[in-house]
Write a structure and sequence with these properties.
about 425 residues; alpha+beta; 2 domains; 6-stranded mixed beta barrel; 18 helices; about 55% helix; transmembrane helix; cell membrane; Lipoprotein-release_system
């Protein structure tokens, strides 16, 4: 204890005395409020960042499950030999599988219902190698697609909107492929619903349909696929691998990775995360600056103690350090309690939200708006450390002015009426 600086000992003593004694109860109350405020702010910031991380993870994973990691297009519009292009791409060790496709936009009609949709023509046996969502019932439905039989597999939400089920017929209406100005009527073709699929991402479940590659080529009046979908070992490396393929493949190819296809969405989510961090940091700052009020009152109450310390030889710097220690410890208590609470809440957030929904009989997330129907959460150590660092820094800054003000105490004035 003798080696422990006396400024720290007095600062800790002031903090403990203010909390334990019956005197100065109002100062103790303000101290408790400042600690609780910092804790709530830190916990809220950790939980919000975890929810945004989880939202990005879950929605991104569902996007990747149905979007190809990388798409390759020939600048001429169609791939003359997709097998040769796939073999060329496979020379990159990151490429694991390839599948040809065509894609076209049209309208699906059924009695008095009508919905816009994206039709993707695929080879089911090849598509299963590049699409993660083709498992279980999804795989069985898509495997039923046969060339030349005009079969279609609808997203589950799209099928609900059209009020159709397996075995029903829908009409596909597409813009006319003829260049003549006399042809203004869309081309139509009747397709039989071979099944439905579900990704768990409302945008795809409500607007995407699959047909066989040959049927898609017939609709476009071509005899080759328009592109190649590639699967790589790590989806997060798609931008790097796409650049490598662009430089290494023989031919005039357009190469696009999945992050480019959804760049606007991911950029918006990152901007929202940064803004939420700034806004909630301001809340932590407001709570941290409650320490200012607590320390100002503490300095006023301890004027006699300060005067005695100064007469005993304590320097202004030592006096300042005493109150910095007192205020910083208050902030650290709030940060520690808030970080612990935030981590625990974020860790169990899906279960907590599920319990609240069942008790109140409400559903917090509408999948038509948020793409997903459950509240996700993903704790990241970097976020927790960033929040703790910012909160500690704000707590420290809030101690500087009251501590400096304590050094302005005149010993003679303070002891005159003691």
């Amino acid at each position: 204890m003798m080696a422990f600086p006396y400024e720290w000992q007095i600062g800790v003593r002031y903090l403990r005395a203010g909390r334990r004694s019956g005197r100065n109860s109002f100062i103790s109350f303000i101290s408790a409020v400042s600690i609780a405020g910092v804790g709530l702010g830190v916990a809220a910031l950790i939980v919000v960042l975890s929810v945004m991380n989880g939202f990005q993870r879950d929605v991104g994973a569902r996007m990747v499950s149905i979007l190809s990691h990388i798409e390759v297009y020939d600048a001429r519009g169609v791939l003359p030999d997709w097998q040769a292009t796939a073999a060329d791409a496979a020379r990159n060790p990151a490429v694991q599988a390839a599948a040809p496709f065509v894609e076209l936009a049209g309208m699906l009609l059924q009695e008095d219902g009508m919905k816009p949709a994206i039709l993707r023509g695929i080879l089911p046996e090849q598509e299963s190698r590049v699409s993660e969502f083709m498992q279980g019932k999804n795989a069985a439905a898509l495997a039923a697609l046969k060339p030349g039989e005009n079969q279609i597999v609808l997203g589950v939400e799209l099928a609900k909107a059209l009020k159709v089920k397996t075995g029903d017929n829908v009409i596909v209406a597409l813009p006319s492929q003829e260049s003549s100005l006399r042809s203004v009527m869309p081309q139509t073709r009747r397709f039989k619903v071979a099944g439905t699929f579900e990704v768990g991402h409302f945008e795809f479940d409500s607007s995407l349909a699959f047909i066989h590659l040959r049927d898609g080529e017939d609709l476009l009046h071509i005899d080759r696929p328009i592109g190649l979908r590639l699967r790589i070992a790590d989806a997060n490396q798609a931008p790097r691998v796409a650049r490598e393929l662009k430089n290494s493949m023989n031919g005039n190819y357009l190469v696009r990775d999945w992050t480019q296809r959804n760049s606007t969405w991911f950029a918006a989510l990152q901007s929202q995360k940064h803004m939420m961090f700034i806004i909630l940091t301001l809340i932590v700052a407001v709570a941290a600056f409650n320490v200012v009020a607590m320390l100002v009152m503490s300095v006023t109450d301890k004027r006699a103690d300060i005067a005695i310390l100064r007469t005993l030889g304590a320097s202004p710097r030592s006096v300042m350090k005493i109150f910095v220690v007192q205020g910083l410890l208050s902030g650290l208590l709030g940060v520690a309690a808030g970080a612990l609470a935030g981590v625990l809440i974020a860790w169990q957030l899906p279960a907590i939200v599920s319990g609240v929904e069942s008790v109140l009989g409400i559903h917090l997330l509408d999948k038509n708006i948020y793409f997903i129907s459950t509240v996700p959460s993903q704790l990241q150590t970097s976020d927790v450390l960033s929040v703790i660092g910012v909160a500690v820094a704000l707590s420290f800054l809030s101690t500087l002015y009251p501590s400096w003000w304590a050094t302005r105490t005149n010993p003679a004035e303070a002891l005159r009426y003691e």
